[in-house]
Amino acid sequence: MAASPTARTLQHCRDKGVLCEVVEQFVNFPPPGHRKDLFGIIDMIACVPGGGILAIQATSASGVSARLKKAKAEPRLKVWLESGGGFEVWGWGKKNGRVTLRREVLTVSDLEIDTDADCF
Fold first, then answer.
1. Who wins on pLDDT, 115 or 104?
2. Which residues, at least 6 apart from 33, have a Cβ–Cβ distance to it below 8 Å?
């Protein structure tokens, strides 16, 4: 059985010595249940020594574009970024039989929301 994008991301971070934890939850109501990301877009938080706090959305390589689009439209991402957190979408795929990782970084200037509006 192939590892999920979240499992691959968790293992990759831990292999690099990065403290990380999955923050996505399984919500059983209403049935049949579904996964709920932190702030609608975050699967995992990583504490990167010398690099700060990083929120990661893990997906397949084919899902990167859709996840980027969703994240760019999420107002809570602006608050996260302006609070000092980083955000990346990690897409896992295979090329020539090898597992590949595509990392896409988002900043406040990438957001498709009104970035001049106050958050509070």
1. 104
2. 26, 27
